[in-house]
Amino acid sequence: MNSVPIESLRQVWPSVRPLLEELARKTKQSWIAEDIYREVIQGSARLFLVEGGVLVTVPKVEEFTHANVLHVWCGIGEGHDYESRLEELKEHAREFGFQKITFESNREGWKKRCPIESIRYRIEL
After folding, report:
1. Of the chain's two ends, which shows fewer C-beta atoms within 10 Å, N or C?
2. Which of 59, 27, 58 is nearest to 19 (CA)?
3. 3-state DSSP call for residue 2?
4. What does the alpha-carbon distance between residue 5 and residue 43 come to, in Å, rounded to a whole number?
5. Torsion angle of alpha carbons 44, 32, 4, 54, nearest 10°?
6. Residues 29-57: tens digit of each pLDDT
7. Would you place residue 98 in the very low, low, confident or very high pLDDT band (cuts 50, 70, 90)?
């Protein structure tokens, strides 16, 4: 996992943007690639280059416990070596003092790897 410094974002953006657009389209996200660009430039999100893809994280403080949380906003990459990527992410989180990693996914396979912390429901209008 290689963090992209803010000053290098413009250089990698032409290769990163199509990946983020593909992810947003496939998973029907409400964000667009430019939202990520803005948050990384402002320093509130970090962009990582991973094998054949990208990972975007956002540091947060949990509301009630005040725990430092590394929230994975989104990620896309080649291959399905989730276990080693997850271990790499855990190492990174520990190194920077995070106590938890959170993310949202509609993929059922994550239930086998991680305990469910909450379920979000929605009502279409």
Report:
1. C
2. 27
3. strand
4. 10
5. 120
6. 899 999 999 999 999 999 999 888 899 99
7. very high
pTM, whole model, 2 decimals? 0.84
- Distance separating alpha carbons of residues 37 and 30, to the nearest angstrom: 15
State the DSSP string of 26-80: HHT-S--HHHHHHHHHHTSSEEEEETTEEEEEEEEE-TTT--EEEEEEEEE-SS-
Residue 115's Cβ-count burial label (10 Å; 0-12, 13-18, 19+) is exposed
Spell out the residues 6+ positions from residue 64 whose beta carbon is closer than 8 angstroms to its own: none
The alpha-carbon radius of gyration of the chain (Å, integer) is 15
| Mean pLDDT across 112-122 | 67
Angle between helical axes of 33-42 and 9-27 (0-180°, round to 10) = 140
pLDDT at residue 55, as a whole number: 93
